[in-house]
Write a structure and sequence with these properties.
CATH class of the largest domain: Alpha Beta
Strand content: 25-35%
Structural class: alpha+beta
Radius of gyration: 20 Å
Shape: globular
Number of helices: 8
Helix content: 25-40%
Number of strands: 11
CATH superfamily of the largest domain: PurM-like C-terminal domain
Low-confidence stretches: none
CATH topology of the largest domain: Phosphoribosyl-aminoimidazole Synthetase, Chain A, domain 2
Largest sheet: 7 strands, mixed
Length: about 325
């Protein structure tokens, strides 16, 4: 099937907004008004997903990696631009499954496709999604606003993807599911959409946890010019009780797609109450102090930082 035909059959039906013009033009008109947040994530077969992974989970993960960035900036997803490099060896049934999952996942988060580009890939499948978001405050929440005295908050659980990958590598069924029947390493579970409002209303600084809890926490502290003291014992790890070595392994593995944010300590009760009312699992895992860098403790004892804090790009 020619590229223009599968665009018309499978992707154009997803682009219902007036600004998309049915994907017939080379440009689209954004429907969101200022302030707008925007993010882009790319995924490559063999790097971010396996060639044997179901293509519907690939589509959903692509959306979620972008949504995670927006939630952590205090913005709700709005409009998406897709770049799709489709291998010749993948048939029409797979593009149909991909498009259906993409449309469903965008709809879950209140977003819609408005355009992009498609090419034939001589190698594996590669994808990129650009997603805009409606800021729920005067602009996106940055990493750079944390102040001494702030509490450090973390949504959800750390390590589900790592646990699921370990089980997959051993050839056993993982007890750490993501959603839609997929393991967590294929399809991460994000915090709810309401996280965007919680961040917009209370966060002094925020970012998503994707490269590893420790490396991302250090990045936030560095961007804000402060030090972060983290209590590993307060972090919710997949699998429950474990030794320190396993905690550090999960805290550096990545692919968690949770939200890390800081907020003034005197807002703690309000944040906890609003999170509970919105169905957001949230935990205070540390505090911001004057200085620089990241330090760890567990059970009142200092913990040495591991040599590798997480995934390093490049």
């Amino acid at each position: 099937m020619a590229e223009k035909n599968w665009i018309a059959r499978y992707l154009a039906p997803l682009a219902q907004g007036a600004g998309a013009a049915g994907l017939r033009d080379d440009v689209a008109q954004l429907g969101v008004s200022d302030p707008v947040a925007i993010t882009t994530d790319a995924m490559v077969e063999g790097v971010h997903f396996l060639g044997t992974d179901p293509v519907d989970t690939v589509a959903r993960k692509l959306v979620r990696t972008n949504v995670s960035d927006l939630l952590a900036s205090g913005a709700e997803p709005a409009e998406a631009l897709l770049v799709l490099g489709w291998p010749k060896g993948r048939g029409e049934a797979e593009i149909a499954a991909f498009a259906a999952a993409l449309g469903d996942e965008l709809a879950v988060w209140g977003a819609q496709l408005i355009g992009g580009d498609t090419v034939t890939s001589p190698g594996g499948l590669f994808l990129s999604l650009t997603l805009t978001g409606r800021c729920l405050n005067a602009g996106p929440v940055r990493r750079s606003g944390a102040k001494a005295g702030d509490c450090v908050w973390l949504t959800g659980t750390i390590g589900s993807a790592a646990r699921a990958w370990q089980d997959h590598s051993r050839g056993i069924r993982s007890p750490f599911p993501g959603s839609s029947g997929a393991d967590a390493y294929r399809l991460p579970v994000l915090p709810p959409l309401a996280t965007a409002k919680l961040v917009a209303d209370h966060a002094s600084a925020a970012m998503d946890v994707s490269d590893g809890l420790l490396i991302d926490a250090k990045a936030l502290a560095e961007a804000s010019g402060v030090a972060m003291e983290m209590d590993l014992g307060a972090v919710r790890f997949a699998g429950g009780e474990m030794d320190l070595a396993e905690m550090l392994k999960l805290a550096t593995w990545g692919d968690d797609y949770q939200t890390l944010f800081t907020a003034p300590e005197n807002n703690s009760k309000l944040i906890s109450r609003e999170a509970q009312n919105s169905g957001i699992e949230i935990t205070c895992i540390g505090k911001i102090v004057a200085g620089s860098g990241l330090s760890l403790e567990r059970g009142g004892r200092n913990v040495n930082l591991p040599e590798t804090l997480g995934f390093e790009h490049g």
